[in-house]
Amino acid sequence: MRFLIIPVTLAALAAASSARASSDNAITADQTTSKIGQCMTVEGQVTLRPSQDRFGADLSFENNNGFVGYVPQVASLGDLARFDGQTVDLTGVIEPGHNGLTQIQVTSAEQIMMADETPDRLLTCDHF
Question: What is the largest CA-CA distance in the chain?
Answer without folding.
Answer: 60
